[in-house]
Amino acid sequence: MSKYALYIKLEARPEKRQELESFLKQTLPVVKDEDETKTWYAFKAAENLYVIFDTFGSEAGRDAHLEGKAVEALRQVADDLLVAPPEFVPVDLLAQKVGLESEVVADTDVKKYGLRFIDGL
């Protein structure tokens, strides 16, 4: 389970939205090469607001991502594509559900039963 995450807020220049979207899509192969980056999402939250949200296996993995090729590339295009510098917010996850797995981080009062529900039965 990933306990560490990163929220990156990006406000695009109105005339540069398409370029930012293309940049984000082209960044995926770079992030795929990062072993400690467990999930990576880039999405449009509002007309000019974009967000990157990723999770990591360790705090060191998050730190390595912040020093890696994807973030470096973002910093290089930020002045041209963004209204303001990217806002990097490290976050610690409390609970998550990915696929059939769900977990609450460090909560010993929550029991996991390993149940699977099948639609139509």
From TrEMBL:
InterPro entries: Dimeric_a/b-barrel. One of its GO terms (molecular function) is monooxygenase activity. It comes from the Bacteria. Keywords: Monooxygenase, Oxidoreductase. Gene3D superfamilies: 3.30.70.100. This is Quinol monooxygenase YgiN.
